[in-house]
Every structure is written in C-alpha cells, then in structure tokens.
Amino acid sequence: MADMELGAVQAQFAKLVWANEPIASGELVKLCEKELNWKKPTTYTVLRKLCEKGIFQNVDGIVTSVLSEEEFNSKKSEQFVEDTFEGSLPAFIAAFTSRKQLSVSEVDEIQKMIDKFREDNHE
Fold first, then answer.
1. What is the H or E stretch that residue 64 is in?
2. Residue 59 belongs to what domain range?
3. pLDDT at 100
C-alpha cells in the first residue's frame, strides 16, 4: 500500500485540490499563492509528491484526484491499523476503547455496521 501519511503542508494542499477539482494547474498555482502564500515551484513540488503517492494526477495541465478525500482517509486508516496493530481491527478497537468510553449511540452505530456486514455477506 502506498504511504498515505501527509504532513501538515501536504494536507492543506490536498484539501484545496479536493475542494476545487478539477482545476487547471495554473489556477492551482494562483490559489496556493493566495491561500498558502506559496510560490509556483512549491505548488508544483507538492503536487508532484502527491501525484507520486497516487492521490492526484495532472493530465494536460488539469489536476484531479485519483482518490477522493473519503477514499484517502479510508486507506490512511487501513494503513494505520496495519502498521500499528498488525492489521487486527479488534486489537485497534480494544486499544481505542481502553482509554475512551464509547457512548450508547456510538455502540449502536457500530452494531448497525456489524449487522449490515453480516446481512451483505450472508445472502
């Protein structure tokens, strides 16, 4: 799995792209200058790095996402569980809930997810 870690600067940039895509690369440079106070080379360097990670693409001067923000966050979460808990979701949940009390509504929401999974996989 590609590295889904983004630093603070890359995360700010990614949010701008997701909010404005598709966007011409020249317009992206102007937007980054206005919003992030960046020069053109900085924009292109960060864009190149995120394209290499498979998050965005720049085709014929038009920047679009390869992964939506939701897909990116999902992959990042999967990578965290894999790297930190050897891929064990129960181990992650056990660690998470050992320090944070779940509310009744959170437990209900998790139970609905489990029930839906069972329905979808037993038809």
1. strand 62-65
2. 8-69
3. 86
What total number of domains does the chain contain? 2
The whole-model pTM stands at 0.74
Which of 73, 77, 98 has its CA nearest to residue 87? 77
Supply the pLDDT for residue 37.
96
Radius of gyration of the chain (CA): 19
Residue 78 lies in a domain: no
The whole-angstrom separation of Cα 55 and Cα 49 is: 9
Please give the structure tokens belonging to residue 97: 């809930």
Q: Clarify whether residues 21 and 49 are in a common domain.
A: yes
Q: Are 16 and 62 in the same domain? A: yes
Residue 72: Cβ-neighbour burial (10 angstroms; 0-12, 13-18, 19+) = buried
